[in-house]
Amino acid sequence: MMKKRLIAAVLLGMTTASAGGFLFPGEVAEAKDSIDTYTLGDLVVTGTRYGNELPGGFVKESAAVGLLGEKEVMDTPFQSISLTQKTIDIFSANPSEASTSILVNAPAIRNAGSTIYNDFSLRGQTANAYQFRINGIPGLLSQTNIPMNFFESVDVISGASVGISGVAASESAGGTINMQTKRAHGNTTQYTMGIAERGTWSNNLDIARRFGKDGAHGLRVNGSYTTGATGIIDERVRNKTFSINYDHHSASSSTNLFFGFRDTWTEEAQRYFYLGNAAVTAMPQAPDATRNFAFTGQHLGMKTYLGTINHEQKLGRNTRAFLMAGASYNDGYGYLVPSSSRLDILNNNGDYSRAMVHEPFSIRNSYVAIGLTQEWTAGVVKNKTVLSFDKDWYQARWGESGSSKGTITGNLYTGHSTYDFLTAIRASSVSGSRTEYYGYSLLNESSFGKAIVTLGLHHHISKAIPATGETTKTSATAPLFGIVYRPTEELSLFANHSESFHAGSVVSGNSYLNAGAILQPGKTKSNEIGLKYTNGRFLTALSYFDMTKASAFDRPVSGGTLRTMDGELSYKGLEFSMGGEFCPKWSIFGGFLYLDSEYAKHTTAFYNGKTVEGTPNFSFVSTLQYAPDKDSTIFLRLVHTGDAPIYTTAQNTLTVPSSTVFDVGARYRTKIDKVPVTFTATVFNVFNRNYWLPRATYSYGILGNPRTFALTMAMDI
Q1: What is the Cα–Cα distance from 245 to 241, expressed in whole angstroms?
Q2: What are the Cα distances from residue 61, in Å, to 57, 80, 421, 536, 580?
Q3: DSSP conformation class of 87
Q4: φ/ψ bin of 406: left (φ > 0), alpha (ψ from -120 to 50), beta (otherwise)
Q5: Rounded Cα gap, residues 221 and 232, in angstroms
Q6: Stated pTM of the model
Q7: 700 contacts 694 by C-beta, under 8 angstroms
């Protein structure tokens, strides 16, 4: 009854407010005064393009496309979406899943995370914050809970994309996610305070200033402190962040410098359950989502220090040089968790067990890219050629991964986790391996008539340097092809072929005949064709993609087994995205992903022909917004995740059930004693549904978060 009343109240509020107020193409405003006309000479306006949001304010008309730079979505030969500051502000208010709650608005992305790990999948490929790029620079963050107040937009490019993005220590073949740091777009000072669920208090101060001649210099300083209890019993978070961004623009150059720091502490956060045990013959019912399954004292602490520089210098009328560089240090100073951060379900009663470990760790990553961009014309063909070299250095140091601190036991339906002992905790970490990745990229974008053709070639070299043993080196080459044809300004047809790969590895283990051999990198190859439509206020895209991914494969031969890279996974599907205003005062954004995944060639024979484990066939996201006036908005978000299989034995398959979660909220702008104030209230999982989430390629059930209330007040002071 409560659910029905709440739905009725939301629909009534949306449908009874007044209509009208916007002009669409073809409509003409009534002239109120006579206007004299004058003829002016040519006027040249220069500046940085910003704020090109579609009506509704959730998505932009352009996105960063790797080495090709900022491009209009209609002129991009890929599925792309750029989420705005408004989207970040609204959906990051949930302290348990700040980054994934934002990213799930991209149709290609599905949530597979929790408070401790903000994991997700991108076109069926596992991903997390290791795969984020910040201002185009990869590998600066870790897998853990990620505060989002550094960023003003998030660009998502679907599909394998090493050809346009360059090397990375950790890459998702499903696409590229680039976070743009906050820049000064004017002189503003904003203080935001908020509260969520059981008492998570947040404070954020954001200051932007432009100075110098014609405002050529900009400074953006941001600091935040969040602490308190989440919607999960006994779970607590604490986030401290600070960032500073400086930018400078002139007729001959542009520079952006960024430094950021965050300290994230999470206590008693545990939502991952392993369901691949053969004794589990039926999918367990999702327990009460407010229950906590962590053991007393479980925690994860992470400090991150990071910096980036982006510089572009004009060398001639049509020639520019660019530099992108960055470095980070991630210090996992507290990491007392179940081994692999999961609990193993043992039987159909929901009993679980797992060893505890303490694994303090640290990750260092640095990156540099240099290159040239040349614009030139051949007859009627306009060309833009990019030549670049980039390199990524990555090193991880891990703690006592094999040293058990005890055994955790409990039950899904009592939620009580106990352990039999907890030995002294050591904070030391041991040396780990180092890896180096470097590559050469050549891209050419040709524009002629109504067509844009992009051709590229990327050569990639990886070098693994273990703490002990010999260095291994592998390489591969990936071509890139993209075409956009615009028969009209409203319609765009596009197609692409792109590739990606992960580093080669050494065959280890005496069970293989080719032990010690070096496997070549495993490639992912993707082909896509689609169309896009815009009327200036609404943008939509639909594409079909066909992707194959190589994987390790054990080949039986006479006398034993060979380890090869002949395994293959197949991903085919449709991706649909939309955003903008479809009628006065009403806007919508989101889309769907239909994914037909399959083990085409797997070492374990019974997998062949089956759907890839943990991968839903269909998912959908949509946010509907109604703006009754210029100061008020009401929004409703629906996030649907389809069911997904888990294979426990050749004879038994579990099914992670589908889930549909509703979020509802409102924003209101007003003034308090002449100070502009924006109130935002959001209820996540408004019907408090208990549900499982699958994780692509894993035998996991991830318990979704309970209903969470969040309220923020932003003051422009």
Answers
A1: 14
A2: 11, 10, 56, 9, 10
A3: H
A4: left
A5: 32
A6: 0.89
A7: yes
